[in-house]
């Protein structure tokens, strides 16, 4: 049984044991494009990846399944070298603590995503980045583009073009890096991790 066959079985819920960690060669390989129209197996894999993210953000399920919260997951992280990513970015509560009108600012499984264009301005998260495949803290600014335009296919084989900025742009770039064999700390200046070049936008 292949890794993908195991992960898409009806009763299987992706958990931390399915996520490979740094040092595994799959994380450093350039993933292959998925063929279109999508196979049922690739559609099911995308659904399982999104299900993992929803479980990881649900306090009850996360505790029960011992999951680290995530806003994105790429197929190479579950040892499948395919260009598939899932992103699930929740909207914050309002200042009074009421739930947002829309639960998520970004909720999508993307097949063969690619960056078509990007801003000149760079951005980084003030608190740095983490990764489900990296079990240690790596401090420093992960320098990325502040705005991007991407293209991808959804599970219905429809092509989309999407403009993203701020946190959503950072999340998608982190996941696209995964399908290109890049880890977030590759983008930290090793000599000066908190170097702030002119024009760098720091996001809270």
From TrEMBL:
<dbReference type="GO" id="GO:0046872">
    <property type="term" value="F:metal ion binding"/>
</dbReference>
<protein>
    <recommendedName>
        <fullName>Peptide deformylase</fullName>
        <ecNumber>3.5.1.88</ecNumber>
    </recommendedName>
</protein>
<dbReference type="GO" id="GO:0042586">
    <property type="term" value="F:peptide deformylase activity"/>
</dbReference>
<keyword id="KW-0378">Hydrolase</keyword>
<feature type="binding site">
    <location>
        <position position="178"/>
    </location>
    <ligand>
        <name>Fe cation</name>
    </ligand>
</feature>
<feature type="active site">
    <location>
        <position position="175"/>
    </location>
</feature>
<comment type="similarity">
    <text>Belongs to the polypeptide deformylase family.</text>
</comment>
<comment type="function">
    <text>Removes the formyl group from the N-terminal Met of newly synthesized proteins. Requires at least a dipeptide for an efficient rate of reaction. N-terminal L-methionine is a prerequisite for activity but the enzyme has broad specificity at other positions.</text>
</comment>
<dbReference type="InterPro" id="IPR023635">
    <property type="entry name" value="Peptide_deformylase"/>
</dbReference>
<feature type="binding site">
    <location>
        <position position="174"/>
    </location>
    <ligand>
        <name>Fe cation</name>
    </ligand>
</feature>
<dbReference type="Pfam" id="PF01327">
    <property type="entry name" value="Pep_deformylase"/>
</dbReference>
<feature type="binding site">
    <location>
        <position position="131"/>
    </location>
    <ligand>
        <name>Fe cation</name>
    </ligand>
</feature>
<keyword id="KW-0479">Metal-binding</keyword>
<dbReference type="InterPro" id="IPR036821">
    <property type="entry name" value="Peptide_deformylase_sf"/>
</dbReference>
<keyword id="KW-0648">Protein biosynthesis</keyword>
<keyword id="KW-0408">Iron</keyword>
<dbReference type="GO" id="GO:0006412">
    <property type="term" value="P:translation"/>
</dbReference>
């Amino acid at each position: 049984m292949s890794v993908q066959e195991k992960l898409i079985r009806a009763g299987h819920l992706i958990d931390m044991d399915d996520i490979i960690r740094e040092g595994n060669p799959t994380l450093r390989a350039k993933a292959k494009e998925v063929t279109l129209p999508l196979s049922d197996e690739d559609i099911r894999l995308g659904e399982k990846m999104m299900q993992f993210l929803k479980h990881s953000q649900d306090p009850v399920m996360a505790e029960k399944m011992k999951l680290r919260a995530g806003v994105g997951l790429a197929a190479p992280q579950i040892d499948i070298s395919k260009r598939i990513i899932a992103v699930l970015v929740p909207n914050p509560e309002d200042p009074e603590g009421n739930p947002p009108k829309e639960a998520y600012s970004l909720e999508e499984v993307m097949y063969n995503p690619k960056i078509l264009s990007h801003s000149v301005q760079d951005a980084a998260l003030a608190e740095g980045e983490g990764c489900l495949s990296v079990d240690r803290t790596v401090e420093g600014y992960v320098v990325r583009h502040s705005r991007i335009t991407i293209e991808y296919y959804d599970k219905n084989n429809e092509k989309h073009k999407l403009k993203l900025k701020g946190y959503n742009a950072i999340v998608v770039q982190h996941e696209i890096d995964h399908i290109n064999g890049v880890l977030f700390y590759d983008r930290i200046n090793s000599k000066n991790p908190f170097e702030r070049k002119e024009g760098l936008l720091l996001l809270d």
